[in-house]
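Write out the 3D structure for:
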Amino acid sequence: MCESSFMKPARTIKEIDTPSSWSQLVQGEWAAQMLQAQLDEWWPRLFGYHMLKLGGLSCEFVSGHCNIRHQVCIDRDNPLRNLEADPMALPFLEKSFDACVLAHQLDFCGDPHSLLREVDRVLVDDGYLLITGYNPLSLHGMRGLLPWNRKRAPWSGRMFMPIRVKDWLGVLNYEVVFHENLAILPPTRYPAFSAWAESMLSGSFSGIGGIYLIVARKRTFPLKPIKPSWKLRRQLTPISVNCRTQVNKKSSG
């Protein structure tokens, strides 16, 4: 069952099966297509030498026209992987990657805070972090309330509201440069109608989109500068002397 992002703690001891392919999710291929279209606009904006795609869902995104040519794909079962590793203890030095893709990894993680800290460790300063996930306050997310869906992915995982994910990023001093909710309505048999309905509802009802994409950038300076508590006192002595002088002249006259 999907867990409410504002009712449940981020960490859980419950065993969660992490899907290694979009085909293991209900309507997963539809969600992957929606996100792929958005990511295609972001690949040319990323620069650097190394990119990390964490999890099988991230591995299946097509990123051939990304400016970052060396891409490391980590998963246990997905055949597109080129490395197996524990996402909570990545075998890389600090600040090794210029960008990192986390496709629905927070939704199927027992400790999302630790996962974000580990990704932050291997990401360079000013590097990009691209996060996708399911929105619990959506038509697609609400389907997890149905008893027969509770053990099916994605509702067997944990869905967090995008605003909560952005709060976590703010604690780690990340600047959110892009956020968009997609898939307001579930897919239909008529792709043209679905595309039209999505474009018509994207303005007023984007907050209830079923999936989200957040692009954040790692910053090395505080996003909210701390103002000093001390202030320089003005030197008022010359003015006070002149006032006393005028008073003395009047009294002497």
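The chain is about 30% helix and 20% strand.
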